[in-house]
Amino acid sequence: MKLMDLLCEVYNKATIHDFVKFVARELQLQRLPKKISLTNKSLGQTFGTYAPDLDELVIYAGNRHTVDILRTLAHELVHHKQMETGVSLDGSDGSPIENEANSIAGELLRKYRYKNPEIYTEK
Question: How far is 88 from 34, CA to CA, in rounded Å?
Answer without folding.
Answer: 20
